[in-house]
Amino acid sequence: MVLSVESLYKYYNGEPVLRDVNFTIEDKERVGLIGVNGCGKSTLLKIITGEELLDKTPDGKGSVSLSNNKTIGILKQNSGLDSDDTIIGEMRKPFKKLLEIKARMEVLEHQMTELTGADLNTVSAEYAELSSYFEAQDGYRIDVRVSTVLNGMGFGGETLNRTISSLSGGEKTRLALSKLLIEAPSLLILDEPTNHLDVATLRWLEEYLKGYKGAILVVSHDRYFLDKIADRIFEIENTRLTSYKGNYTAFVNLKKMSVTRQNKEYELQQKEIAKLEDYVARNKVRASSAKMAKSRQNMLDRIERVEKPQEYTKPPKITLEYDIVPPKDLLSVDGCELSVGSGESKKLLASDVTLKIRRGEKVAFVGPNGAGKTSLLRLIQGVIPHENGKIQWAPNVKIAYFEQEHAYLHNDISAFEEVQDRYPTMSELLIRKHLASVLIIGDDVFKPIGVLSGGEKAKLCFCLMALKRGNVLILDEPTNHLDLNTMEVLEEALMEYDGTIILVSHDRYLLSKVADRIIEIDSGNIEDFAGGYNFYSEQKAERAEAQERDRIRAKEEKLKAEKDAKAYRSREQRAQAAQKRQLISKLEKEISELEEKICDYENKISSEEYASDFEKMSIACTELESMRNILDDKLEEWASLED
Predict the structure, then answer these.
(1) Residues 149 and 161: beta-carbon distance below 8 Å
(2) Could you tell me which residues are beta bridge partners of residue 526?
């Protein structure tokens, strides 16, 4: 076990934030922590890491216990980064002790060739102890471990010597995560780790975390990420924490089953209680049945009441419908140029955009940031012009557009006025009803849109989309700023919608649920995948593997070509080459024998027998130094022959 939490309570201004929280996290467990914004996730993490104290119960209970010799590491933006250091320098800091030991070992190695007597014995003993610890702590693989993580997290080549102060906020967060992975605490706590990561880095991180030796507690709204790594889900709802076995998809199913079961148990018990109460009320005053009524009252008193299930976080209601069915061939884009800016600042994103979309398809545009996904959505709607090519929509198409920045909302008016301006004949009661369906209620309907949260603005946009009753939905990053409940509702609405959907999103879970066709935009190329997101991911993985096989094959072919070219050299060249190979082979054998002897002598020097015998130690050190010098000469000769 890594962590144990028992009877954890936390109050703010007398109001409970967390009540009677109990759980354990075992070694190598991967736990996803979820809940709506403000439910207490961050508070729980602060209590676990010691930033805040828990509140004791009246009887003094309540504890957070970390097992002996276990460590906790938590990801925080820019956490512990030295702005003046380089990337590689920062990544080597977790190995400071080992690097100091390595430097000390090098000093001791030099001293052992010069000292004699008791001093040599002392130095040899220290060297043996440090060498054993350094090897046990995997000190010889420091550079390999650092480069593996940095490459996976998108840092490599010339970037390693960049100073941290020159990095963007997202790069600093990625570096902080990289450093935390290198530190490898017993319990790795990650708070929204998928922010600022592209798809390739996300895939690498998912695979890396699967093999992580410690336990993981992760807070994330990325349900696809939770599906990949979590084997347990903690949900905080209405101040209480409930544990579910399995990944996020398993949690969704188990939660539905649990709520259904609780409702059924509650309803059945309420019926039974009502029958007993009715019997007692009708018969307690009658002499003939008073005894029986008292018996039923005792039964009532003994019933262990099932708590009434509460809909703690009422989800919004999103219903997407349309009135007019458009033709089958919905959209045709032929030979269009996709660019942004104008004049000298104009940037070409794709020279030939050609695609067709049919009625009822659910198409997702994917690709790296800056590839032109949002621009393509704007292009097909005519928001940005095109100088060549043709864009043809079928008749009777009605588009409902969700823009990720919500630029079509008017920040200086209220949500009520936004709806009223678009639908002036709609009654005040009906406007409030539609806003209430997306949880904009009470005085919030009259607040200026500019002061609403990102999630509230998104819900208002969904309300406007539903009112428009479009037969084509165009959505640009619709799940940004949404809580998990609203994401689930939106997915259900999009899955049930039988019109056409054109979607841009980084939410892989949404893509895997909704999209039945993927169009990738990358480096000016547009490629169509006739399948959903999982099919697209498999195709990309297969191609990456094929490219790696091709790279290896090309390398082998190059080596073979070089070998074949050597076969055509003159007899004299071949004879010289043969002599050179013989000499190299001889040197390699001598080097191997010398290395074995040196290893034997190093073991002797570390033994008690030599440590207690000055003369033996002195002779052994002299011979060891001589062999090392000979080895250096032979290695230099071997290297020159190889060159």
Answers:
(1) no
(2) 521
